[in-house]
Design goal:
By secondary structure, the chain is mainly beta. The chain has one domain: Immunoglobulin-like (Sandwich), CATH 2.60.40. It has one helix and eleven strands, in the order H-E-E-E-E-E-E-E-E-E-E-E. Strands 6-3-10-11 form a four-stranded antiparallel sheet, with no helix packed on it. A four-stranded antiparallel sheet has the order 4-5-8-9, with no helix packed on it. A three-stranded antiparallel sheet has the order 1-2-7, with no helix packed on it. The termini are far apart.
């Protein structure tokens, strides 16, 4: 005699899990873009300026490290340089904030004259080989993300 199997998976627990998955999908498809950016010249160097264009205070703003393409080795090679940004505790509504950063080359902090942030500047009509991956915490305590394509290729076609 065949064993009886319970095939009704529509119980409260399963429905709750399905609702959570739908909410996560909704969050991931959220195209919220609370930041605009520009590069400003300060102290004989470039800096990244983020502007919170929302009417909410955003907390724990971080820009992930940007690994720069090797433009010295023919055909490219492993990344020799990267730019690391310091986190910002909060940005108030419509406020601008300058992100401090440090360029690292071959695992060591680079001197200010070797700063490579200018490679992240956008040049109209050029491809954008890099991205600013920004994370922040919204007023509800949820972590959100925004990606901003940046940069230009400084290779000279030969």
């Amino acid at each position: 005699m065949p064993a009886w199997r319970h095939t009704d998976f529509g119980g409260p627990k399963e429905k709750r899990q399905q609702t959570e998955i739908q909410e996560e999908t909704k969050i991931m498809s959220n195209k919220e873009k609370p930041f605009t950016f520009r590069f400003v010249e300060a102290e004989d160097n470039f800096r990244l300026e983020l502007t919170n264009v929302t009417d909410r205070t955003l907390k724990s703003i971080e820009v992930l490290t940007v690994f720069l393409k090797d433009e010295v080795t023919p055909g490219g090679g492993p990344s020799q340089a990267h730019i690391r940004f310091d986190a910002i505790e909060r940005i108030l509504p419509t406020e601008k904030s300058i992100m401090t950063h440090r360029t690292w080359i071959n695992g060591k902090p680079a001197a200010s004259e070797s700063d490579l942030l200018s490679r992240l500047q956008v040049i109209s009509g050029e491809p954008h080989p890099y991205v600013l991956d920004i994370s922040w915490e919204d007023p509800d305590g949820k972590t959100r993300f925004q990606r901003i394509p940046v940069g230009h290729s400084s290779r000279v076609a030969g």
